[in-house]
Design goal:
With about 190 residues, this protein is an alpha+beta fold. The protein has a single domain, classed as Aminopeptidase, CATH 3.40.630. The protein is about 30% helix and about 25% strand. The chain has a seven-stranded mixed β-sheet. Strand 3 (about 55-70) and strand 4 (about 70-80) form a beta hairpin.
Amino acid sequence: MIVTPVRLEVHKASMRDIGHILALINSYAANGIMLPRTELEMSEHIRDFSVAYDGDRLAGCGALHFYTPVSAEVRSLAVQPDLKQHGVGRLLVEALEHEARAQDLESIFAFTYAPGFFHKLGFSEVERGELPLKVWKDCLRCPKFHNCDEIAVLKRLRAARTEDHTSQFSTRTAKLVKLPIVNQATFR
């Protein structure tokens, strides 16, 4: 068997990648491994995606979806079946992690059928209850909600902040409330 080297280029996805991404994700969805995506959903979330190309061929894709100012999910990670074990998934997750670090996030997480893959990249298994935003926002729409067999994994990127943002917000809000009220007569 001759193995041809894979030359990968990873970059942020653009609108012209949508058809290729949909074909890849929905091929996995047809086997019950991923949730299907629509063109509308892809158009709305294309900025979350990064893609890996081997020449002109889409080798894989993955998205970094922000949930809070300090956490995001690695999702829609898919690799062409014949390119598995060529480092495509690793390269995509590393690119998404780099993006998360650039955004100063504390953690990234994923729901997966391949926890071993994520363990090799520094993720640890966690209870679903540690990721409530994900469960209540997206999982409620999933047909597997009551029978979910995915494993939750999390990677801490830095220690949690100890400052209290709530009190800072309250102070700012209080200052805004004290501004004088201006009516239309003032501008005539």
